[in-house]
């Protein structure tokens, strides 16, 4: 008999004033895995988290922890009995309690009876020397570490994290995220993380649940969502895009880069051909306008530079194509600042291109 997921959500729906803000949402999170509810503000991700935690109630659907139903149409187990921990962006440490007392708050016997467990967790996040400090003596990053181990101290089966790193200085985030991920994996906790930041989801999640208008529009490993997006909006959530619009004729769509195969799309339909800026390659046109380069598995369009900016790690170069005057953007590692008007060839690999019906 297979082991049930640590957390499973089935057909979850929540309505406000007749509108479904969470609409038939289903997913599962195994032990030791991180699932990320990702999406823009108002898409329903935080409401989903609150329902799973038990601080809000669904209109339909079922939630199980280790195969045990904690909420369905007729059952509502209180939040404190669900073996689910909560961690929010404001950390919410108790100012009158020491770090040790904060961490031990949810443990029977308090800090004295659980000194070993408290010290062990604090050591894991390099906070052992602060065990007797108070919250006002801590930095934002240190408070975040204490909030994390406080949530993990009772050994919850599932940990809910709502934008947990949004209040941190950007320089601290990557290190603290990595520390957090290592600790969560070691504890075997299933994690449901809510964020609106694609970089955070890509860095932490074993699976991403991308939400839009209350529904999960695509779910899977970060690699799959990035490299096989379900539609243009999914692709655009993870990076900037260049979009070429065209109309299908004889299973082909014409662009400044030549013809693209669009099999199975009815003649006359409009499609969008999508390429990420980092997948556009650049070659100087030293001979006026030809001959065009012939990259392997690719094709080229002639264009002129309209603007170039250096962004630190890379340069952003904007172009307009000679044919159809389409604005395109390419990113180039390092410093690359050709003056406006410079003629160039833009090349792309067709296996890095996405074709979607026009939205």
TrEMBL record:
GO BP term, pick one: quaternary ammonium group transport
Transmembrane segments: none
CDD domains for the chain: ABC_Carb_Solutes_like
Keywords, alphabetical: ATP-binding, Cell membrane, Ion transport, Iron, Iron transport, Membrane, Nucleotide-binding, Transport
Keyword Cell membrane appears in the UniProt entry: yes
InterPro entries: AAA+_ATPase (IPR003593), ABC_SmlMolc_Importer (IPR050093), ABC_transporter-like_ATP-bd (IPR003439), ABC_transporter-like_CS (IPR017871), ABC_transpr_FbpC (IPR015853), Mo/tungstate-bd_C_term_dom (IPR008995), P-loop_NTPase (IPR027417), Transp-assoc_OB_typ2 (IPR013611)
One cellular component (GO) term of this entry: ATP-binding cassette (ABC) transporter complex
Pfam families (alphabetical): ABC_tran (PF00005), TOBE_2 (PF08402)
Domain of life according to the entry: Bacteria
Molecular function terms from GO: ABC-type ferric iron transporter activity; ATP binding; ATP hydrolysis activity
UniProt domain ABC transporter: residue ranges: 7-238
Keyword Nucleotide-binding in annotation: yes
Protein name, as recorded: Fe3+/spermidine/putrescine ABC transporter ATP-binding protein
Organism (species): Paracoccus zhejiangensis
């Amino acid at each position: 008999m297979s082991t049930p997921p640590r957390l499973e959500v089935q057909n979850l729906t929540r309505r406000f004033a007749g509108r479904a803000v969470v609409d038939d949402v289903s997913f599962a999170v195994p032990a030791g895995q991180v699932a990320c509810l990702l999406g823009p503000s108002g898409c329903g991700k935080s409401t989903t988290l609150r329902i799973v935690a038990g601080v809000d109630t669904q209109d339909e659907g079922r939630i199980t922890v280790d195969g045990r139903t904690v909420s369905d149409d007729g059952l509502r187990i209180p939040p404190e009995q669900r073996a689910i921990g909560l961690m929010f962006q404001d950390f919410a440490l108790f100012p009158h309690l020491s770090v040790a007392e904060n961490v031990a708050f949810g443990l029977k016997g308090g800090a004295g009876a659980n000194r070993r467990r408290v010290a062990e967790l604090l050591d894991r996040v390099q906070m052992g020397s602060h065990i007797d400090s108070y919250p006002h003596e801590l930095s934002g990053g240190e408070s975040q570490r204490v909030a994390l181990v406080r949530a993990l101290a009772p050994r919850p089966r599932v940990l809910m994290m709502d934008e947990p790193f949004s209040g941190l200085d950007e320089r601290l985030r990557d290190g603290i995220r990595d520390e957090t991920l290592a600790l969560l994996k070691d504890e075997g906790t299933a994690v449901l993380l809510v964020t609106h930041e694609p970089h955070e989801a890509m860095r932490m999640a074993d699976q991403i649940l991308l939400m839009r208008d209350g529904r999960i529009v695509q779910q899977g490993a970060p690699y799959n969502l990035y490299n096989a997006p379900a539609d243009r909006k999914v692709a655009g959530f993870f990076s900037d895009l260049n979009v070429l619009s065209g109309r299908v004729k004889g299973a082909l769509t014409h662009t400044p880069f030549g013809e693209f195969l669009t099999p199975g799309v009815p003649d006359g339909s409009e499609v969008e051909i999508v390429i990420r800026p980092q997948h556009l390659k650049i070659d100087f046109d030293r001979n006026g306008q030809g001959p065009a380069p012939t990259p392997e598995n690719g094709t080229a369009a002639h264009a002129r530079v309209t603007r170039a900016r250096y962004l630190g790690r890379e340069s952003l170069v904007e172009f307009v194509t000679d044919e159809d005057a389409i604005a395109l953007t390419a990113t180039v590692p390092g410093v690359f600042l050709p003056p406006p008007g410079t003629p160039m060839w833009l090349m792309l690999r067709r296996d890095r291109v996405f074709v979607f019906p026009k939205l």
